[in-house]
Amino acid sequence: MSTPRLIAGFIRHGDYHQLADVPSALQPFDLNDQGKSQALHAASLIKAVLQKNNWQLFPVVDSSRLLRAWQTAKLITENLTSELDEPAEIQCFDDLAERSVGAVANLTIEQIEDIVKQDPRYESLPVDWKSNSHFCLPFQGAESLMSAGERVANHVTQQMNQLQNCVTEDTVKLFVGHGAAFRHAAFHLGLLNFEQIRQLSMYHAHPVFLEYIGDKQWRHLAGDWKVRGKSASFTD
After folding, report:
1. N or C: less crowded end of the chain, CB within 10 Å?
2. Mind listing the pLDDT tens digit for each residue in 11-20?
3. At what angle do helices 67-78 and 33-53 cross, to 10 degrees?
4. What CATH topology corresponds to 6-168+182-213?
5. Dist. CA 236–CA 225, nearest whole Å
6. Which helix (H) or strand (E) is 118 found in, with range?
7. 62 and 91 in contact (C-beta within 8 Å)?
């Protein structure tokens, strides 16, 4: 009997009511109408991939605690009932959150930069501070994009290792979270090189399926990354 395949489905939340010029991804707002439609479409995409490959859906979905991610997970699971006896359980984790900017969460870019200028302890922020993978703001609770990705990668790896012990068929486990953290996690998992982190993005509520081979080995199976325009910037 062959060993069952283990597949992680990375899903960026749907579009939401996002504050303008605010780089924090910890905004507590809900999906907008477009985001809800995207989540419903995601359920159709997932169902088609499951049926095409004869994959089973694991009945526990891991989600970021942020409302937009939880709503996305809820809409997806409610519309995958044909793949399960009942809607999947959603478990929320801090580890799947986007990069935190700490004490300046949900302030505008201008406010953050002004605070840094007025504090004699801090040097001026680099021009690319919002998208620099290794830069961490000098505030309590802040983290870099790279460290956020490592946090997500560790969570996903731990969950997939546990899954190895409880499935007998090719199985997909869904993770609903945030674009930048997922891309940096993909780097830590060996799925993207460093240059690709900036070159690629994720479509809202468009699953990317990644096979966990074991022993920290992964490969991309299905679902497209979004190619980013040369002038685009990212915060989520």
Report:
1. N
2. 999 999 999 9
3. 50
4. Rossmann fold (3.40.50)
5. 14
6. helix 109-118
7. yes
